[in-house]
Design brief:
single chain; alpha/beta; Rossmann fold; UDP-galactose 4-epimerase, domain 1; seven-stranded parallel sheet; two-stranded parallel ribbon; 13 strands; about 40% helix; globular
């Protein structure tokens, strides 16, 4: 990475993207953010207002001309711009293909034209689907269960193929269950932390899917961002590397740490794994990366950030059932 050139972060106003911007600026890099602000939020970057090394461009990843313009003078590309969430991807697959597949094609075409030094891609553990191997290694087959997962996998394949054919160094960081400050609080029912903290802030029951014994490989957002930086600084290319904590936690344990006592159980959803668990042996060897923030520390940070959830939508059994109707309809 060249500090005299620009590091481009697509989706840089988003949850993970904004933390990556923090780390790049702290390390003395020039940063350009390209974001449509459909998912990302300007307030995620407000603390960098007037930072001399930060440029923010509003644009659509699906617009090839806008992507090409943003790519000018860029050294490394961190491609995090994407549409997320399961239910909307089932209901509006064309939107997800436009952003996650066509958008990634636009990024790689622009990266090719502009001769960037490396492309870092934000991959998703949802590509593994209902994994047969636990912990799940990078060699596990892709088994996407819904359009969001499929589009992230197709985007990853575009990145690798362009890297192979056009000799562009690439690296995919496969993110398991990221959490931390600035996680989304609005949108279709989804991220468990945002749902729980909004319910707690409103004094409403915490809704647990199934019996709460399912486990997730929660990984704190600053650890995720650090993996992107270390990957960009490395010579590792043409690979996917899993990023997880190495110690899955149950939803019941999360609720316990949050101090919730008013609990309501809702039906288990089809297509969701009982466990997500990243095999991180490869990233430890390749990047000398390991998580630094424990689950207990991370939850404490989230509780300290609880005020921002007071205005978030508060989900109930009935509204969750309505929001996930398509989930049960198509995936059962």
């Amino acid at each position: 990475m060249n500090k005299n050139k620009i590091q481009l972060v697509t989706g840089g106003a988003g949850f993970i993207g904004s933390h990556l911007v923090d780390q790049l600026l702290d390390a003395g890099f020039r940063v350009r953010v390209f974001d449509s602000f459909v998912v990302g939020r300007r307030e995620n970057l407000a603390h960098h207002e007037k930072h001399p090394e930060l440029e923010i461009i509003e644009g659509d990843i699906g617009n090839a001309d806008q992507v090409m313009a943003a790519m000018q003078g860029v050294d490394t590309v961190f491609h995090l711009a994407a549409r997320a969430d399961i239910v909307p991807s089932i209901e509006l697959p064309e939107v997800y293909f436009s952003a996650n597949v066509d958008g990634t094609f636009n990024v790689m075409q622009a990266a090719r034209a502009c001769g960037v030094s490396k492309v870092m891609y934000a991959s998703s553990s949802s590509c593994y689907g209902l994994a047969d191997q636990v912990p799940t290694p990078e060699t596990a087959p892709a088994q996407p269960q819904y359009p969001y997962a499929l589009t992230k996998y197709l985007g990853e394949q575009i990145v690798f193929h362009w890297g192979q054919v056009y000799k562009i160094p690439t690296l995919a960081i496969c993110i398991f269950n990221a959490y931390g400050p600035r996680a989304r609080t609005k949108g279709t029912y989804g991220a468990v932390f945002g749902v729980f903290l909004a319910q707690l802030a409103a004094g409403k029951p915490v809704t647990i899917v199934g019996d709460g014994t399912q486990t997730r490989d929660f990984i704190y957002v600053t650890d995720v961002a650090r993996a992107f930086v270390q990957g960009a600084l490395s010579d590792v290319s043409g690979r996917r590397l899993n990023i997880g904590s190495g110690g899955p936690q149950s939803i019941n344990r999360l609720v316990e740490l949050l101090g919730a006592t008013n609990i309501e159980y809702i039906p288990k959803r089809p297509g969701e794994p009982d466990v997500t668990f990243a095999d991180t042996a490869e990233v430890q060897k390749a990047l000398n990366w390991s998580p630094e923030v424990s689950f207990e520390q991370g939850v404490a940070h989230m509780l300290a950030d609880q005020d921002r959830y007071r205005d978030a939508p508060v989900w109930t059994r009935d509204t969750i059932a309505q929001a996930t109707e398509g989930w049960f309809k198509y995936l059962s």
